[in-house]
Design brief:
The chain has two domains: 32 residues, no CATH class; 36 residues, no CATH class. 58% of the residues lie in helices and 0% in strands. α1 packs across α2. It is elongated, with a radius of gyration of 15 Å. The N and C termini lie close together (8 Å).
């Protein structure tokens, strides 16, 4: 998922509707969200095989950037 492109599209839609930069707002809120699951010794190897470099991630936005590459 290309978060930058998605942000730009939401910003454009927000501007057209007179609501401002919705994409930028959404992105900043989403990037602050924790992943929603804990990385521990029991699941670290499995998760790292699914999402290379996940061990360094802590926010949803970062996960989507890594996963979209």
């Amino acid at each position: 998922m290309d978060m930058e492109k998605l942000t730009e599209q939401f910003n454009q839609i927000g501007s057209e509707l007179g609501m401002g930069n919705l994409g930028t707002l959404y992105k900043s809120i989403f990037e602050m969200q924790p992943l929603g699951f804990e990385i521990n010794e029991g699941n670290k190897e499995y998760l790292n095989s699914m999402f290379l470099g996940l061990i360094l991630l802590r926010q949803c936005g970062t996960l989507l950037k890594k996963w979209g590459r």
